[in-house]
Design brief:
The protein has 180 residues and is an alpha+beta fold.
Length: 180
């Protein structure tokens, strides 16, 4: 209920000052990008958790306590979604070995884009591929259309995404959910 009241207040302010949702979104993303760029090192080594295979069992552990085989990174604290650390180049949606159910989610990647610089510092420390370039993705909006998301910087400072029908090659990195 409190959330609804806050959103109603924000809506009133936006109407009073003739602000568009696109303008507010762009402003927020610029602020988040500027903040992530100003912290070029991981301020807390435990900002991100890792999914590790320890004694044949998957466990979510803080970054500083990593051990065993490193499988994935959790971009957000207290959320079960992870991004696998390994990636493959030049894959298409139409390739038979691509698991469409595990592709990066376009909406999730919108949120990850805002912290990608800090996340890439973590990936670099692990000697894993950075989140950069174009990746196969899926979306609840127009499901099955061959979405591709781009983590490269652009003038809008937002994740780029579009659908290509499934025959355009891009990198492949899977995501998943881990509930311990």
């Amino acid at each position: 209920m409190k959330r609804q009241k806050i959103l109603a207040r924000i809506y009133k302010i936006m109407r009073a000052h003739n602000l568009s949702t696109d303008g507010v979104k762009r402003y927020c993303q610029e602020r988040l990008t500027a903040k992530s760029a100003s912290t070029s090192t991981v301020s807390s080594s435990d900002e991100f958790d890792l999914l590790c295979l320890i004694n044949s069992q998957k466990k979510r552990v803080p970054f500083s306590q990593r051990e065993g085989v490193l499988l994935a990174v959790f971009p957000f604290q207290d959320e079960p979604e992870y991004i696998e650390l390994d990636e493959t180049d030049n894959k298409k949606h139409t390739d038979k070995d691509v698991d469409e159910k595990r592709l990066l989610d376009r909406e999730f990647c919108d949120r990850v884009y805002a912290i990608k610089d800090r996340l890439n510092v973590c990936l670099k420390a692990l000697n894993k591929p950075l989140l950069e370039g174009a990746y196969l993705a899926e979306s609840s909006y127009m499901h099955g259309c061959g979405w591709i998301v781009g983590f490269d910087d652009n003038k809008f400072k937002t994740l780029s995404s579009d659908y290509y029908g499934g025959n355009t090659p891009a990198k492949l990195r899977y995501m998943g959910r881990f509930n311990a």
